[in-house]
Design brief:
- The protein is of the alpha/beta class.
- It has four domains: 6-156, Methylthiotransferase, N-terminal domain (Rossmann fold, 3-Layer(aba) Sandwich); 174-285, Transcription Regulator spoIIAA; 297-404, Transcription Regulator spoIIAA (2-Layer Sandwich); 410-468, OB fold (Dihydrolipoamide Acetyltransferase, E2P) (Beta Barrel).
- The protein is built from 13 helices and 21 strands.
- The protein has helices at residues 6-10, 43-59, 82-101, 117-126, 142-148, 195-199, 207-219, 245-254, 272-280, 297-303, 309-322, 341-354, 381-405; strands at residues 19-21, 33-39, 61-63, 72-77, 106-111, 132-134, 154-156, 164-166, 177-181, 183-184, 203-204, 224-228, 259-263, 287-289, 327-334, 358-363, 410-418, 425-430, 435-439, 448-456, 461-468.
- Strand 6, helix 5 and strand 7 form a beta-alpha-beta unit.
- The longest helix is centred in the C-terminal third of the chain and has 25 residues, at 381-405.
- It is globular.
- The termini are far apart.
- It binds 5'-deoxyadenosine and iron/sulfur cluster (SF4).
- Iron/sulfur cluster binds next to helix 6.
- Iron/sulfur cluster is lined by residues 186, 188-190, 193, 195-196, 230-231, 266.
Length: 469
């Protein structure tokens, strides 16, 4: 048993990150058994789940969408806000019921929540029927943890700075778009954020490994890659003689992959070089997710974000001027400890200036172990909810406006599949990451097609295919 420790997870040494080349060969151990996998949180978790799926399927499990049919349940969790926790504990309750009638059911909890001491203590004390707890640093061990489970709880979580693993095998969800990790962890320690504790120190992958992965995806026929990291703009800063993010983007662009995206950006690490490279290559999509968090310089300082409102706006303007047709989205937290009406008004002012294409908005959620959780917070939940509602109204207005600008225009859409809401329609995304639903034959899936936009809503567009590229 190895338990998590936030104290340990906080540490950052100067030592070079170890690169470990995995030799993942899982032998088949079950027949006709099913797994149920639930993924919470960010794209990083979605991609980790592709690794989990590979392991489970190599062991012989088949996926089921029904919890009741499962022989093994894996919850890949998120720790970013309290409501993510609540959902997982709700699911664990359902697993308990199921286990009463299905004694051999294996219940596994992985991901960011598993890296938190409070969560693991609760699991140990109140959830004895959870068989395996694994963290973000040892997903590759899941196969052996399952093999060793004799229905006594096994907790293996490492609060280490972390290594870089290469040769990870995935069962990718799509054969059109793919996630590619370029770095792991984060050293920014924004005062509200649990990620540097749950994901470890910033570790960049060697550019050679990343380029090889992208090239092999191109060879397999993938059209789009999304480069993933908690702070992609800091890519390479932890490596000697390596490329910066601008250099990496350029190398990825040269592989000839049709579309390149990247998340998430931190304004502090965003350089002019990066903006220039995005503008220079047609296959780097003109879409940037640029978290603001707050429009008040005073709150930004308390958040440890390292930029002021003015610096953010300067960067924003530079992007708009340099990258033709760029779309910019953001993340905003309301109700950070000490946020006044005036601070909130600053946030609204920035939103009114930037007119974001899209914004993800949250009420501050105190995370145990982070500095902001200890800050004095006198604002009532009611006021915070009112601020959130007001902010959402504004961001939705701008999303709709941006979508309406596309009415009767022709856009290029990469068709990704059949719409989940309407099986007679296909869906895809524009270069600026707008969701478009179209009518058309399944042969279009995987193609970039020219679409005439016929209707615009707040969160999606409807269109007609006018030409296959
Ligand atoms: N409370 C609320 N929102 C948070 N985020 C991160 N930590 C917290 C927190 N403690 C938001 C930030 C980040 C996004 C992924 O989640 O806006 O950019
Ligand atoms: Fe969290 Fe800040 Fe790192 Fe983003 S940059 S993951 S908000 S600590």
């Amino acid at each position: 048993m190895n338990l998590p420790s936030l104290q340990e997870a906080r540490k950052r040494s100067k030592e070079k990150t170890e690169v470990v080349y995995l030799n993942q060969t899982e032998e088949k151990i079950v027949d006709y058994k099913k797994y149920f996998l639930r993924t919470y949180g960010c794209q990083m978790n979605v991609h980790d789940s592709e690794q989990i799926k590979f392991i489970l399927e190599s062991l012989g499990y088949m996926e089921t969408e029904k919890l009741e049919d499962a022989d093994i349940v894996v919850l890949n969790t998120c720790a970013i806000r309290e409501n993510a926790h609540d959902k997982v504990f709700g699911y664990l309750g359902r697993c308990k019921h199921l286990k009463e009638s299905k004694k051999d059911l294996i219940v596994c909890l992985g991901g960011c929540m598993a890296q938190e001491e409070v969560v693991v203590n609760e699991i140990r004390n109140k959830y004895p029927y959870v068989d395996i707890v694994f963290g973000t640093h040892n997903i590759h061990e899941l196969g052996s943890l399952i093999k060793n489970t004799l229905h006594k709880q096994d907790i293996e979580v490492y609060s280490i700075e972390g290594k870089v693993y290469e040769n990870i095998l995935y069962k990718r969800d799509s054969n059109i778009t793919a996630w590619v990790n370029i770095m792991y962890g984060c050293d920014k320690f924004c005062t509200y954020c649990i990620v540097p504790y749950t994901r470890g120190k910033q570790r960049s992958r060697r550019s050679k490994e990343i380029i090889n992965e992208v090239k092999s995806l191109v060879n397999k026929g993938y059209s789009e890659v999304t480069l993933l990291g908690q702070n992609v703009n800091a890519y390479g800063k932890d490596l000697e003689e390596e490329l910066s993010f601008a250099g990496l983007l350029e190398e990825v662009a040269k592989t000839g992959i049709k579309r390149i995206r990247f998340v998430t950006s931190h304004p502090w690490d965003f350089t002019d070089d990066m903006i220039d490279i995005i503008a220079k290559y047609d296959n780097i999509m003109p879409y940037i997710h640029l978290p603001l968090q707050s429009g008040s310089s005073r709150i930004l300082k308390l958040m440890g974000r390292r930029y002021t409102k003015e610096e953010y706006l300067k960067l924003f303007d530079k992007m708009k001027v340099t990258i033709p047709n760029v779309a910019i989205s953001t993340d905003i937290i309301v109700g950070f400890p000490g946020e006044t009406d005036k601070d909130f008004q600053d946030t609204l002012d920035v939103v009114n200036y930037c007119k974001y294409d899209n914004a993800y908005t949250f009420i501050f959620s105190p995370r145990i172990g982070t500095p902001a959780a200890k800050m004095e917070d006198n604002t009532s939940l009611k006021v915070k909810e009112e601020r959130l509602a007001k902010l959402n109204e504004l961001v939705n207005k701008y999303s709709l406006e941006h979508n309406k600008e596309l009415l009767n225009k022709e856009v290029l859409v990469l068709i990704e599949g059949i719409s989940a809401k309407d099986s007679t329609k296909l869906y895809g995304y524009t270069d600026t990451m707008k969701l478009v639903n179209v009518e058309g034959s399944k042969d279009l899936i995987g193609k970039i097609v020219k679409v005439l936009i016929t209707d615009a809503k707040s969160f999606s567009l409807d269109g007609k295919v006018i030409q296959n590229k």
